[in-house]
């Protein structure tokens, strides 16, 4: 799951970013409303944790704008305003949940899990099934018939992205943003290295899956023998 955190209190933002990354989420952070809206508008985030009182642009106004642009990312609003009319305003603007400051990080994590269970923005615990190949992002394990292999966390994030967009070409830029982060300083050749690692492990399973290189553009995962027709849990970007 990719999360955008929009919070101007830097100490709180840094603490939340650390906790979310520790729980294996991919996190980008913005510290004002203008940058937060620009990043959210890319549509690449599964969840946006949005502070209400922000410099540059207020959180509810950002949310209204995103919903008007058909951005469907799940949104949790963070706010010190606990009055009922304020909560109603945020929910009516399109928020999926509302969390009053101060809050415990355990409660935030529970709300993220709850959102994942009830929305189409699933937390990365669903099984992916393509033919005889099964992949579990939670355990970082892939199985093909009677063989299995473990993937590293970064390999898991890359393979999950490819599976969610099976049959579609993903550019290197899209992969870099979704797996390494919006402001990542990782070089493009890191993608080639991890594609090699994932290919090697899929080959070790004798899986029917293959990752094709689309020269000058990016990569596409597909089933080698036939078009993907019976793919479960596949979502587009």
Number of strands: 12
Q: Name the helix and strand elements from N-terminus to C-terminus, one letter apiece.
A: EHEHEHEHEHEEEEHEHHEE
Low-confidence stretches: 120-125, 226-237
CATH architecture of the largest domain: 3-Layer(aba) Sandwich
Silhouette = elongated
Helix content: 25-40%
Task: Give the radius of gyration.
Answer: 19 Å
> Can you tell me the CATH superfamily of the largest domain?
Response regulator
Q: Strand arrangement, largest sheet?
A: 2-1-3-4-5
The N- to C-terminal Cα distance equals 12 Å
- Beta fraction: 15-25%
Number of helices: 8
CATH class of the largest domain: Alpha Beta
> Structural class, please?
alpha/beta
- Mean pLDDT over the residues: 85
Question: Main sheet, how many strands, which sense, barrel?
Answer: 5 strands, parallel
CATH fold annotation of the largest domain: Rossmann fold
Number of domains: 2
Question: How would you sum up this structure in a few lines?
Answer:
This protein is α/β, with parallel strands linked by helices. The protein contains eight helices and twelve strands. A five-stranded parallel beta sheet has the order 2-1-3-4-5, with helices on both faces.
């Amino acid at each position: 799951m990719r999360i955008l955190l929009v919070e101007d209190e830097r100490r709180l933002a840094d603490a939340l970013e650390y906790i979310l990354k520790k729980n294996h989420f991919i996190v980008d952070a913005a510290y004002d409303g203008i940058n937060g809206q620009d990043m959210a508008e890319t549509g690449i985030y599964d969840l946006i944790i949005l502070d209400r009182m922000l410099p540059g642009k207020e959180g509810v106004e950002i949310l209204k704008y995103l919903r008007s642009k058909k951005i469907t990312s799940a949104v949790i609003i963070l706010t010190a305003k606990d009055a009922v009319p304020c909560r109603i305003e945020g929910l009516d603007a399109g928020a999926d949940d509302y969390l009053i400051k101060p809050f415990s990080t355990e409660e935030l994590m529970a709300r993220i899990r709850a959102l994942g269970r009830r929305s189409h923005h699933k937390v990365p615990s669903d099984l992916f099934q393509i033919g005889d190949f099964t992949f579990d992002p939670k355990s970082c394990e892939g199985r093909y018939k009677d063989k299995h292999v473990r993937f590293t966390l970064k390999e898991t994030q890359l393979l999950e992205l490819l599976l969610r967009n099976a049959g579609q070409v993903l550019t290197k830029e899209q992969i870099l943003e979704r797996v390494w982060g919006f402001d990542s300083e990782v070089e493009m050749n890191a993608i080639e290295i991890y594609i090699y690692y994932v290919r090697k492990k899929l080959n070790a399973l004798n899986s029917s899956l293959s990752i094709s290189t689309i020269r000058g553009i990016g990569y596409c995962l597909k089933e080698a023998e036939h078009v993907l027709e019976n793919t479960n849990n596949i979502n587009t970007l």
